[in-house]
Amino acid sequence: MNTLKMRYLRFALLLVFLAGLLVILAFFLIGEDEKPILINNTPVPPFPTLSPVRVAEGAGLYAQQCASCHGENLQGAPDWKKPLPDGSLPPPPHDGSGHTWHHPDSLLIDIIANGGDRSYNSKMPAFSGRLFEDEIASILDYIKSRWGKDEREFQWWITYTQDRS
Ligand code: HEC
């Protein structure tokens, strides 16, 4: 092989190498967070990142307004699955061990603003007179910040498919 051919070959190899590097880099840069979430064959965009400022504001409001019943650490009442003698349910946890993450944003906002279902004798108070919509939203952001990836994915998926359809 003459030197010119060798040079072309080296150049081509360098290009292949660089292209490979780009693919690997793109893979890491795009990463998990950019992949659509697929549940029941319905893809939705990746869940949005929470703003630390709103999460902090929500944590403060949660401590003032919700912690006395739902627990300082979102742990809910002990034995929360067992109905009380009056037929009502004790406050459930808001962390991943509860069922808050099973519900779309619209339902959670409705329960917080208007209170629990009175026909079940629910003891969840209505907060619409005490909290602004934006404050309810930041409390929800705080609650979401305490979930694992699976709970966040599911709740974002159900919010996206139910609230936007
Ligand atoms: C006086 C006690 C009390 C306070 C204070 C309270 N809750 Fe509740 N909450 C309850 C009870 C009891 C339930 C269960 C009601 C039911 O299922 O009937 C409940 C249920 C809920 C639910 C539905 C639960 C789910 O997982 O499906 C949400 C959401 C909720 N509360 C959010 C809040 C937020 C946010 C605050 C603070 C702004 C708050 N609660 C303050 C007692 C309380």
**Class from secondary-structure proportions:** mainly alpha
**Shape designation:** elongated
Q: How many domains comprise the coordinates? A: 2
| Number of separate helices | 6
Mean pLDDT: 93
CATH architecture of the largest domain: Orthogonal Bundle
Poorly predicted ranges (pLDDT <50, ≥5 residues)? none
Which range does the strand content fall in?
under 5%
Helix content: 40-55%
Describe the model.
This protein has 165 residues and is mostly helical. It folds into two domains: 1-30; 44-163, Cytochrome c-like domain (Cytochrome Bc1 Complex, Chain D, domain 2). It is 51% helix and 4% strand. It contains six helices and two strands. It has helices at residues 3-30, 52-65, 67-70, 105-114, 133-145, 149-163; strands at residues 37-39, 42-44. Strands 1-2 form a two-stranded antiparallel ribbon. Strand 1 (37-39) and strand 2 form a beta hairpin. It is elongated. The relative contact order is 0.14. The model has no long low-confidence stretch (mean pLDDT 93). The structure holds heme C. The site of heme C has 26 residues, from helix 3 and helix 4.
Give me the secondary-structure topology.
Blueprint (H helix, E strand, L loop, with lengths): L2 H28 L6 E3 L2 E3 L7 H14 L1 H4 L34 H10 L18 H13 L3 H15 L2
Antiparallel strand pairs: 1-2
Helix pairs in contact: 2-5, 4-5
Write a concise synopsis of the structure shown:
By secondary structure, the protein is mostly helical.
